[in-house]
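Q: Is it fine to ask for two folds in a single conversation?
A: Yes, each is treated on its own. Send the first.
Q: Here.
A: Result:
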Amino acid sequence: MTIPAWQASWPYVALLFGMGIALALAEIVIPSGGALTVLSLLAFGGAVVAAFLMGSAPGLIALAAMAVTAPLLMYLFIRIWPHTPLFRRLILRGPSGVGKAGDLAHLAPEELKGRIAVAKTALRPAGKITLDGRQIDCVTEGDLVPAGRRVKILEVHGARVVVRVVPEED
């Protein structure tokens, strides 16, 4: 079987090699579900096969180039991927700061007892209340409380805040 001259030439090997690199780098920023990675591997494999069709020395040179390029691409992937918008959408972020819902570290339990707050969500029996503009996770004594009702803080044990509905004034 004879091989076409264009298929067993350095420009063809370089083209396939360049396509492999471009597809691997595109996989970092384009969500393809791995399709670009497969195409990249096929391009790299095609470059090595085309180089081996020219002879064993060119094939080994192409294989050595792959051995250098693969770790370099993996390094770039690890360094760049966490900073892409797709990665940020896939990975959950940790707490974004102090003063968010349920954060009682800045308040002493004595400061909360007896205070009046507003139910931000329906308390069934757990939910959130708003006190001084801050959201606090809480539980009722067992009652269901609709959102918007005023509640009184009865107890604070660590992060557990117990509330009771304040009777509406007529």
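Q: Second one now.
A: Result:
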Amino acid sequence: MASKRPTSPSRATGDKKRKVSTKTIPLRTQIFISYAHEDDEWRRRLVTNWLEKIDSKMLGARIAVLLISEDFLASDFIFKKEVPRLFNRHKRAGMTIFPLLIRSCDWEEVSWLRRKQIRPKDGNAMAKYKGDKRSEELAKVVKEVAKIARSSRS
């Protein structure tokens, strides 16, 4: 079941639709989450009780959380539209790009993603965790994103 993997933000395969989410945490820090439509369940798990839906605040966000999965990597829209804009924002305004591996995939084959610190730090996909361990790992992500948000305001 091998599929082509994009090697840069400008090259991609597939044609998946996706939704956009951000959250306002204390002091109005915007967080953008990029994910494939098929991964919406993971987005909801990650953002329960602290994320509100939006449709056009990506470029105003200070943090971009990328929900990495097979569907994310196959999304033409994400790789041709979102990722280049996010990296432009990263270079221009210091946006933090925070990749979160939610389902196992060949993310190491994507050159720009391979250079980023993927979470969880042990390299396991969130889907591999069950019960309390999953909740613990999600809590670590929320704490790390909140810490980044606090430091980006200083």
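Q: Anything structural to flag on that second result?
A: Two points. Confidence is low (pLDDT under 50) at residues 1-28, 49-56. The chain has one domain: 20-153.
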